[in-house]
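Example record

One chain of 381 residues, shown exactly as stored in the release files.
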Amino acid sequence: MITTAKRLDIIEEYYFSSKLREVRQLASEGKPIINMGIGSPDLKPSKAVMDAVISAMHDENAHQYQSYQGLPELRKGMADFYQNNYGVTLDPNVEILPLIGSKEGIMHISMAFLNEGDHVLIPNPGYPTYSSVTNLVGAVPVYYDLKEVNNWEPDFDALEKLDLSKVKIMWIGYPHMPTGARGSLELFEKLVAFAKKHHILLVNDNPYSFVLNDKPMSLLQVEGAKEVALELNSLSKTFNMAGWRVGMVLGSAKLIDSVLKVKSNMDSGMFYGIQKGAVEALKSDQSWFDSMNEVYKKRRVLTEQLAEKLGCEVYKEGVGLFVWAKLPEGIASAEDFIDKILYEKHIFITPGTIFGSNGEGYIRFALCVKEEKVQEAIDRF
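Predicted C-alpha cells for this chain:
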C-alpha cells in the first residue's frame, strides 16, 4: 500500500476546496445557490487588458518558456505602480519578483527562510494558508491574537511576552483579511521596529488595498522596512484578474534573490500573454478604481442590510472585498449558523472559524455577487 507523506497528517484540504464541492452538489440538485462565501471577483478586467492579451498571442516567442523573473516591462510596471500609488521606490531589476499568484509566494517565502522547527507568528484570525504552508515545511505555527476590542491589530505587550527566540517569520496583512481592518502607517512602524528588535522577517500580504479603501498603504513606505520585510501584492482583486494568477513579492535584493532560488526550481515562468495583460492593467488610472469601487459600494450597502436582517452586527470600519459581522448573542457555532442558512435558504456565507479561533462568533460575506442577487438573498428572509 502506498502511504502519504507525514506532512499531510497535520494539514487538511483547504476549506473552500471541500465546502465548494458541497455547494456545487447542491446547485447540481437544482438548489438556487447564492454564493457569498468566496472572494472571487465577478467583474471583468478592463477592455485594454483583454485586448493586450489577444494582441500578444501573435508576438514572436509568445508561446515559449518565459523568464523566471518575468518580462522586464512587467517588473517596470510593478515598480511604477508602487511609485505612483504608494510613493515607494523599487529597483525593478532586483527588488521585484512576479509570481504566479501571491498565494504561490507564501510557499516560496516559507521554503526560502524556514527550517524544520522554526516558529512562525500567524494572525488569529487570518488567512488559513499561512498555517497550512507553515505546517507543510515542518515549521511551528505560533498564533497571535487579533481582536475587535483592539481594532483587529496586534497587542504588542502580549507579543513581547511570547518566547520569540525561534521565530523566523511574522505574517501580517492590512487591509486585513477577513475583517477588513485598515491598519495604519503607525502600526506598520511598530511592526517594523518589532521585527528589527527580534530579527524576524516581516511579510505583509497586501491584495486588498484598492478595494473600498481611500488610503492605500504599503509596509515598504516605512523607513528601513526593506531591511526586515517583504510585501506580497496581487492583481486578483485590484484588477479583477483572480484566475489569471498574477502576483508579486517586493523587498530588498538579498531577500528577493532568496525567494527566486526557490521559485526558479518550481515553475517555468508566467505565460507571456498574461504578463502583457498585467502590464496594461498596472497602467490603470484613478478612474478604474473609482468605477470598480462604485459597484462595490452599492453591494456593500445591500450586504450590510442582509447581515443586519440576520441579527448580526457589522464591522463598519472594514474595507476590502468582504463584510465582517458579529453573530447575534447566543449563537454557539458560526459553522452551524451558516450551514442552516445554506441548507434552508441556499445562501453560502463563510464562517469566521476557518480563519482561526478568534473568528468564532463572526461570519464573512464576499462582495462578489451582483446587486440583484444580494437583494434576492435579503428577500429569502
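Notes: Residues 58 and 377 are 45 Å apart (CA to CA).
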